[in-house]
Amino acid sequence: MRLPKLFPAFILLLAAVRAPAQSVHWDPPGGQLGYNQVSELTLVFDNCGPDGDPAVPQVDGLNFGRPSQSSQTSIVNFKMTQTFSYIYPVRPTHRSAISIPVFEVKTDKGTMRVAAANFTVGDTPVGGAGNGPALDDVAAAKLTVPKDTFWAGEVFPVVYNLNVVRRYFHSLATNIDWQPAPFVAEDWTKPDPGEALVQGERRVISAQSTRAYARQPGTYTLKPASQMVNLMVGSTGFGIFSAPSVEQRQIDSNPVEVTILPLPPAPADFSKAVGEFTFTSKVVPITAAVGEPVTWTLELAGTGNWPDLTGLPQRDVSNDFQVVQPKSRRTMKDGSLFEGTLSEDVVLVPTKAGTYQLAPVRFTYFDTKTGTYRTVASDNVTVTVTAAAQPAQAPAGTGAPVQFSINTPPPAAAAPALPPATPPVTPENLPRDPLPGSGHGYVPLPQHTLVQVCLLSSVLCILSVWLLLATLRSRQNDPQRLRRAARAQLAAVLAEMRAAGAKLPAQSSSLKTWQQLAAALWEVPHAAPGAPLVHALVTARDQAAAAGWARLWSEADRALHSRDQALPADWTARADNALQAVRVPGWPPFSSFAPRNLLPFLGMTEEQKAEGLNRVIRVGVWLALLFSLSALQPSVFGAESAGEAYKRGDFAAAEAGWSKELAAAPTDWTARHNLGLALAQQDRWAEATAHWTGAFLLNARADATRWDLALGLQRSGLAPVELVELSRGEGRFGLVRLATPGEWQLTLILAALLLAAALILLLLQGYRRIGAWGKPVALTASLLAVVLAVAATLSLHAYGPLADPAAVFVWRPATLRSIPTDADTAQKSSPLSAGSLAVAEKTFLGWTKLQFPGGQSGWVRSEDLISLYR
After folding, report:
1. pLDDT-based confidence at 630, cuts 50/70/90?
2. Helices then strands (H, E): number in the chain?
3. Could you give the CA distance from residue 587 to residue 479 in angstroms, rounded to a whole number?
4. Nearest partner of 846 among 856, 859, 857, judged by Cα
5. Separation CA 138–CA 221 (nearest Å)
6. Fold classified for 270-386
7. Which of 69, 453, 612, 779 could be cross-linked to 472 through a Cys-Cys bond (beta carbons 3.0 to 4.6 Å apart)?
8. Which three-class secondary structure string do you get for 664-703?
9. pTM
10. Region of poorest pLDDT, from 220-224, 532-536, 591-595
């Protein structure tokens, strides 16, 4: 009696025994890792799943990369196990033992404990095999400097040389990683690869250089530079399906010790400049009237410690001059931190006539070549000021140039000498007015999609038309076509004879038609055959049916040509049964691929078929029409509230309204134009330039978008190369901006379709369905297609990353990171300049991964980006 009560408990106990256990562990749980070698560690979740991304503890000497994910389900002995894995790329940076401590992770089954994992770190041979070569024998890196002693502030070159055995070299995996502090250094130059024969072994040599200097004297060490290199350690597969096996290793250079000497005791006017400099002075004009401006320009140029230079020496000027305070202009050579020019323009407005001496200006710097201080001075300049015909009074208390007005003299007085006329200054460019309504542009396709569309649209059109022509020819040349038609018509004639029910001669016409169709069914060549001929021809095809058809034919002849003109009562039924027993082969579809149908233009002739030609033309027109319609973008109407807010001067409200409108219709270039106006009115020129760039990419021919782009680049100070060239429209860029990237892609697709149409014309002529005009028209269409394709391809190449639908604009300075986190980890990062153009690959929790034209990629905050199409 107690068994029913214990049975549920027994079932639960059995289920608990059979239920799989849950755990989280490292795979492998220990072992050896290669120093500076990228390996994989897997965090395995057995029969459970992670609740969010696991927080792996930081381990000194072990760098964790961004993990990938995988899952697996297996059933063994009716027991199902599930695993979920995070696969981390790891790289040891120390040769000491490494231990990943115990930590806890949250899973969908609760919090679980991960056991510690202990690893030893050693120098693993290249390829992982015990008999493989050591890494130092395969690759090496070296830092060199021309000497080991430099002056404080002296700029000196640093050269990085990487050499790898040619048979192991695959590619460079990363840029040089080097921490120059406490030195001030430039960026590394681009790799300059080459090959050389070293001790009988061909090696790949990659040289890069930079320049640096130290501000303070002392003994310093240039830290080692490191770089990840992909090495080929074998191959997988065989033959044409083989692929190289690549192993990623870090190559470290040597450290370099340098001594920085203190500068000798400096003169009082030392400018803190160290290097090689030139100093020039220019005064224009040296003769002027009272009130006329005189410009005094000083320019410093050369190579040295520019980051430490603050300005040019001051100048002494007579109190008889009104002085406009100068604005320094510093211009650095592209990509250089230590070569540039610094210039200042001082405007002097004389208030009294006389002769004035402009004292020389002296500039003292330390010359590293001679190890001495050098002073360069401008020449002594004499400025002659003549009296003005009408004295000019300088406004008191201002440092601005004197302004003049031309007064008309009284009629009786002699005309005074007037000062030279000064042309008016062109007013600064201002944003234009908002545009009403909406206007939409074409969003470009991804590159792989564009290639697929071009190939498929052209190839499918040609193949479809070709197959249609071959099918029409196959059906027309089918030897059983006339027999099938005769059999169908015989059935209709017999149906009419049954329905009529009358005796001859009322059925004589139907009976004659039956004989004609029966002769066509059995392919009787004689116009008036007798029963014996019919019997012989039917026997050749169907011996069992020969007697029946010969009897039917004989009875029909007797009825038509005898006196009584009567058919047997069962003749119609027997004729119908005989017809039902006849089997005529149908049209074989695969006969379309026979050479006589697929390639008739190789020697066979064919009559023109109007119906087939019409079908081909209709198919081509429908394909082109459907493709054109698929590229159209929907249109929406913009709200008027944002425009009204803009007119009232409420630019923040106008920005909100147009931002909402743009979010609903990203392809509306008028909304992008108007939103840029609202941002520009708030002095947010960088954001405005980004939205104006998007408007230009959606409508490059509009005068408003061209004006916007030029104005945005001018006022924001941003100067991406692609946008600067497009805004100017000079040379080939005049052609490029005749269409947007989306329109150039449509042109490329049109060129593919036009080329397909030319080939279709040649096919039609080969099938003898059109006249001789097909060849010249096809040749003209082909040449036009080539011209359009070349213009579209060159224009899309000129647009560069702007031709990608995921193009983004970096509107403010940001930091490019290797992993999407702000945490203070050992990840690599580099500054990202405002105005950079890139392609967004994917997003993750407020981060966006960017891909740059040079192949570099990284993560940046999404709020630092503005999408140009989306």
Report:
1. very low
2. 19, 38
3. 9
4. 859
5. 26
6. Immunoglobulin-like (2.60.40)
7. 612
8. HCCCEHHHHHHHHHHHHCCCCHHHHHHHHHHHHHHCCCCH
9. 0.41
10. 591-595
Average pLDDT over residues 331-353: 88
pLDDT at 506 over 70: no
Quick check: helix, strand or coil at residue 630? helix
How far is residue 521's CA from residue 822's CA, in Å, rounded to a whole number?
A: 86
Q: Is the pLDDT of residue 864 over 70?
A: yes
Hey, what CATH topology would domain 22-122 get? Immunoglobulin-like (2.60.40)
- The residue among 728, 824, 838, 735 whose CA lies nearest residue 788 is 735
Tokens (6 digits) for 569? 């009562």
Which residues on neighbouring strands pair with residue 45, listed in sequence order?
Answer: 24, 84
Ranges of beta strands (E only) in 237-386 are 243-252, 256-261, 270-284, 287-289, 294-304, 321-324, 329-332, 339-350, 354-358, 362-367, 372-377, 381-386
State yes or no: pLDDT of 558 exceeds 60.
yes
Token representation of residue 570: 């069962």
> Residue 155 and residue 320: Cα distance in Å, rounded?
43
The token pair at 581 is: 């027993």
The strand ranges marked E within 14-114 are: 23-27, 30-34, 39-46, 62-64, 68-76, 79-92, 98-100, 103-107, 110-114
- Both tokens of residue 452? 């697929």
Q: What's the rounded Cα separation, in Å, for the pair 262 and 210? A: 23
CATH number of the 807-867 domain: 2.30.30.40
C-alpha pair distances (Å), 572 with each of 43, 490, 503, 505, 567: 86, 11, 12, 15, 9
Q: What is the DSSP string of 137-165?
A: HHEEEEEE-S-SEEETT--EEEEEEEEEE
How would CATH label the architecture of 135-261? Answer: Sandwich (2.60)
Q: How confident is the model at residue 406 (pLDDT cuts 50, 70, 90)?
A: very low
